[in-house]
Amino acid sequence: MAEEYIKGSGKGRGGWRGGGRKKGVKIGKIKPETVVFYKRVTPEEKEKLEQYLNQLRSQTE
């Protein structure tokens, strides 16, 4: 039979059954939706893209 749980005893590292955050619960600030961009670009293109993104982001604020 299982031993009784004693806080700080070093046992029971698995946690409680049914413990933890429930599925679908959101905690904290909700971030805007983002999309990952995977394309090879030259250093010049990267610089232009960063400038354009900064320009777009400053317009929306």
Topology at a glance:
Elements: H1 43-60
Helix fraction bin:
25-40%
Query: How far apart are the first and last residues' alpha carbons, in Å?
Result: 61 Å
Number of strands: 0
> Cα-atom Rg, whole angstroms?
24 Å
Class based on secondary structure composition and strand pairing: mainly alpha
| pLDDT averaged over residues | 80
Briefly, what is this?
The protein has one helix and no strands. It has one helix at 43-60.
Describe the structure.
With 61 residues, the chain is an all-alpha fold. Helix content is 30%, strand content 0%. It contains one helix and no strands. The protein has one helix at 43-60. The longest helix has 18 residues, at 43-60. The relative contact order is 0.06. The mean pLDDT is 80.
